[in-house]
Amino acid sequence: MELRPLYMPAFGAITTVVLLLLLRAGQRLWSPAHTVRSDLEQGHLAHALLQVGQVLGVFLISGSVVAGSVQGESLAQDVLWVAAHGVAALVLLVLFGHLGVRVLLRARLAAEVERGNIAAGLAAGSHYLATGLLLSRSLSGTDLGSLGVALVFFVLAQLTLHLFVMLFRTLTAYDDAEEILGENLAAALSYAGVTVALSLIIGHAVEGTFVDWATSLRGYALALLFALALYPVRQLFVQTLLLGARFSFRGGRLDQGIAAERNLGMGVLEAVSYLAAAFLVTRLG
């Protein structure tokens, strides 16, 4: 019987626990006043939502690291590569999650989370989750060469995510960042939905065996075309078909419901529609 499947579940559980402990230790150093327990007991939902995104990201990268690093030929070698990839992935999750939040939602977001802004916590948590999804699709390998290629594609995926989120936000007549900083939970739901949906599509594009740079980059670019499906989902499917409003190329009834009315139902509908479309196109693509 092959050795690899026998201890992979144990590797997965141990890796997840160790990475969560490292994440918790880091949180105690950076923000000693906040733990998952204290946030929930004190009703600090904003910070709890941010931590939920981080924890989900850890679970995603743990499974990916173990699946991509364990070969079953040498226990010592498997432990070495799982440890190296796991620590690297955790550092990248925290670093790029933090930087992404600051780039896309402005530096004030951290203070808003600290203040208890639930919309800000949801938006920040969704970005950590999106970062974890991209890491889980790109970070793998059992040698320095493959690890280097994986890191390049992860950075490329992060840049792509930032670009696509910014482009998609031009579809709204309102300023997503200002609405979220202003505690608009409907806008945060919309933002979280499109961010995670785009990370699913981009993560799907970055998956696959590396052949050479030209071939892999061409395949990556072609797979990204599926992201265009989110535009008709918003403007045609949600706004026109489901809400029964007039079609518009930008803005429209959905924007009014999210920004002016802060309609949570519309925010949930928009977010779920993005995620459903992402699951569909990645399944078919």
Helix content: over 70%
Number of strands: 0
Order of helices and strands: HHHHHHHHHHHHH
Question: Which sheet architecture does the biggest sheet show?
Answer: none
- Quote the distance from N terminus to C terminus: 34 Å
Poorly predicted sequence stretches spanning 5 or more consecutive residues:
none
How would you state the average pLDDT, rounded? 85
Oligomer category: single chain
Which strand-content bin applies to the residues? Answer: under 5%
Shape verdict: globular
Number of helices: 13
Q: Structural class, please? A: mainly alpha
- Please give the radius of gyration in angstroms: 20 Å
Structure description:
This protein is an all-alpha fold and 285 residues long. 79% of the residues lie in helices and 0% in strands. Helix 4 packs antiparallel against helix 6, helix 9 runs antiparallel to helix 10 and helix 9 runs parallel beside helix 13. The chain starts with a helix and ends with a helix.
Provide a quick synopsis of the model.
The chain is an all-alpha fold and 285 residues long. The protein is built from 13 helices and no strands.
